[in-house]
Write a structure and sequence with these properties.
It is a single chain. The protein has 162 residues and is mainly alpha-helical. The chain has one domain: dinb family like domain (Four Helix Bundle (Hemerythrin (Met), subunit A), Up-down Bundle), CATH 1.20.120.450. It is built from four helices and two strands, in the order αααββα. The protein has a two-stranded antiparallel sheet with strand order 1-2. Strand 1 and strand 2 form a beta hairpin. Helix 1 packs antiparallel against helix 3, helix 1 runs parallel beside helix 4 and helix 2 runs parallel beside helix 3. The longest helix is centred in the C-terminal third of the chain and has 25 residues. The chain is globular, with a radius of gyration of 16 Å. It starts with a helix and ends in a 13-residue tail after the last helix.
């Protein structure tokens, strides 16, 4: 398997990583804004945050040089829940669209993964793709933990329960 194929698999989650799109399925609307115990963020907030950074890195790769937030709080929504189910579905679609853009980039044979996109940090396209995969994996672990705490795991397409 090539590096690109491996990154593509990891982008969506495979093996030890739950499939990120499957992990969002079958959630009761009432659970999207829940913060059980001392959880600092809801499932909706976490997904919104993931999208924020996906969009940020996609813009960086495209050469748009987005402004880095002054404080971490800027990458989190204040609302704990979507206004309605339609907003939740649109949020999932936006997340999936970002994944599709990364997937297309990984499938493009001519894509220059060594191209530096952040001179300050000497980060190239490959670095940013790996960063998004790791960032998404981290936060989807949180989403899964919240789903477990809320009694909403596994999702309809299954997931590890041990």
């Amino acid at each position: 398997m090539t590096e690109r194929e491996n990154l593509q698999r990891l982008l969506y989650g495979e093996g030890a990583h739950a499939n990120v799109l499957n992990a969002l399925e079958g959630l009761d609307e009432k659970l999207l804004g829940a913060r059980p115990g001392d959880a600092p963020h809801s499932i909706f907030q976490i997904l919104w945050h993931v999208i924020y950074w996906q969009d940020y890195e996609l813009a960086s790769i495209a050469g748009e040089h987005p402004s880095y937030p002054s404080h971490a709080i800027e990458s989190w929504p204040q609302e704990t829940a979507p206004r309605n189910l339609q907003e939740w579905e649109e949020t999932i679609q936006k997340f999936a669209a970002g994944l599709n853009r990364f997937e297309a980039m990984l499938a493009e044979p001519a894509a220059d993964f060594g191209r530096v996109v952040n001179l300050e940090k000497n980060e190239n396209v490959r670095d940013l793709i790996v960063m998004i995969i790791v960032h998404n994996s981290h936060h989807f672990g949180q989403i899964i933990m919240l789903r477990q705490q809320l009694g909403s795991w596994p999702p309809p397409k299954g997931g590890d329960t041990w």
